What we know:
Blueprint: H1 9-20, H2 28-36, E1 57-60, E2 63-65, H3 68-78, E3 85-89, H4 95-101, E4 106-111, H5 114-126, E5 132-136, E6 149-154, H6 163-167, E7 169-180, E8 185-193, E9 196-205
Parallel strand pairs: 3-4, 3-6, 4-5, 6-7
Antiparallel strand pairs: 1-2, 7-8, 8-9
Helix pairs in contact: 1-2
S-adenosyl-L-homocysteine (SAH) binds near residues 95, 113, 116 and 212.
Amino acid sequence: MAIMKDAFAAYREEMVNKQIWARGIADEKILSVFRKIPRHLFVDEKERGKAYSDHPLSIGYNQTISQPYMVALMTNHLNLTGKERVLEIGTGSGYQAAVLSALAKEVYTIEKIEPLAEKAASILKALSITNVHIIVGDGSLGLPKDAPFDRIIITAGSPDIPLPLAEQLNEGGILVIPIGTRHIQELIVARKEMGELIKKKECGCIFVPLLGKYGWDSN
Ligand code: SAH
C-alpha cells in the first residue's frame, strides 16, 4: 500500500491511542494499520475535519462509514493471520475493506449502491491497494463463484445470519455480523465447527440495515 505522510497522521495516532488501544485492542498489527490508512480520504471533503472523531459519519445515499472503534473491533474478532480470503458485505466507503486488505490475502467486498462501490474503488486504486475486489450486487446472497471464504464480515444490520453466507464460510472460519432490528443490533461472532455455527454475543451496536433477499425489505 502506498502510504503518504499527511497532515492527518497526528489525528490518526490520537484516534488509535484514545479510541482503539484505550478500549482494549492491543494487537500491534491492527493498531499499525489504523495509524497508516488515511481515513479522511474515505469521507466527503466537507467531513474531513471529523474523519478521526469517535463516531460514524455520513457517506451519502443514507449510508455511513462506521465508527473507527467498531471497524477495529470487528477486525480484531476476525483473527486474521495474513493468509485469509475474506468476504465483506457492505463496502460503503471502502475503509473497512482497506483495513482488511492490509491484514488478509484477498478481500472480496459487495456493495448494492453502485456509486458508492465506484467511489470506494477509486480511493483504493489511488492508495495502490490491489487485493480488494469490489462487486456490485445483493451481498446477502454472498459470492458463490468465489466461495468458500475463511472470514466473512457483514457491516450492515441483519435480522439473522443470511443462509448463503453461513454456507459460504469455510470450516474453522469466522463470521462477524450485527444482528437485531432495523435500528439496533448485537454484534455476533460465529465460528464454524463441524459444519455448525457456534455463536457468541459480543456487544450492542448500531448499523444501517442490510437490505436484500436474506436481509430486510427495501421498503
Ligand atoms: N464497511 C463500510 C460501512 C458500511 S455501511 C465502510 O467501511 O465504510 C453499510 C453498507 O451496506 C452501505 O453502503 C449499504 O449500501 C450496504 N448494503 C446494505 N445492504 C446490502 C446488500 N444486501 N448487499 C450489499 N451491500 C449492502
